[in-house]
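Worked example 3 (structure in, sequence out).
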């Protein structure tokens, strides 16, 4: 069963050398493309299609379901699997089940089944309006790092003290992509968009008082940004921002998708 691009290349070389027929090779590629566990259909060929294996969205899944998915992925050779939105109790349970992982409490994210890390390339800057946005920032940063990107964190550089952001202007302008994470009125993304020549990914957060409406005010501000080159992901979607930033930073390279 072909699991990654390296295995596909080896298979193609075997076809070229006459060691295997194209029909037999097609069977190997399609064989076991996913495993049906009843509660989940684990996609083993996502890395073939998108360059990065399946990511597990932990919220709403039981500890046992997450363990079963990870065990199946591990048996198929998956490594460095992102598991988002899980608590410490779930991480502890997974470890008791013999699943090795590194857990990060602030973003509630784990990297399971550790293997050789990808060489980190390019430069992604993650900037936050305030310290309260750090959970979303870290979800984005750890996602991007796991996918093989160099990440620079600039936290608490919001517009209430613009000099803090401007003091790091050189860092911002050296990035290939900037992720701007902010709650309240969400102005940070527009400000950064007017200072850099690279793409900006805006992440509205649910941080703010009543009229913030759980992040809706920041979302609408970012969608209405007058700065060109600003794209917007969903409220509190650090994973989506980190993943998209990786795609931009590694144009022509690899990618993936989160399992819902």
């Amino acid at each position: 069963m072909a699991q990654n691009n390296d295995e596909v290349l080896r298979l193609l070389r075997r076809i070229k050398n006459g060691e295997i027929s194209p029909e037999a090779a097609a069977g190997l590629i399609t064989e076991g493309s996913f495993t049906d566990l009843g509660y989940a259909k684990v996609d083993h060929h996502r890395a073939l299609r998108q360059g990065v294996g399946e990511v597990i969205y932990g919220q709403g899944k039981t500890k046992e379901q997450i363990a079963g998915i990870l065990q199946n992925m591990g048996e198929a050779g998956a490594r460095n699997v992102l598991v988002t939105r899980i608590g410490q109790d779930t991480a502890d349970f997974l470890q008791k089940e013999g699943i090795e992982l590194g857990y990060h409490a602030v973003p509630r994210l784990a990297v399971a089944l550790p293997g050789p890390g990808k060489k980190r390339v390019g430069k992604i800057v993650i900037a936050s309006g305030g310290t309260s946005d750090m959970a979303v920032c870290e979800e984005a940063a750890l996602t991007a790092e796991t996918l093989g990107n160099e990440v620079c964190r600039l936290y608490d550089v919001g517009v209430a003290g613009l000099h803090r952001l401007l003091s790091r202007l050189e860092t911002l302008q050296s990035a290939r992509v900037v992720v701007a994470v902010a709650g309240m009125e969400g102005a940070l993304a527009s400000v950064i968009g007017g200072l850099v020549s690279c793409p900006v990914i805006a992440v509205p957060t649910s941080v703010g008082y009543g009229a913030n409406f759980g992040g809706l005010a920041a979302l609408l501000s970012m969608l209405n940004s007058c700065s060109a080159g600003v794209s917007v992901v969903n409220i509190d979607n650090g994973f989506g921002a980190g993943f998209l930033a990786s795609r931009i930073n590694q144009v022509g390279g690899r990618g993936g998708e989160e399992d819902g």
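Notes: The chain is about 35% helix and 20% strand. The CA atoms of residues 103 and 180 lie 24 Å apart.
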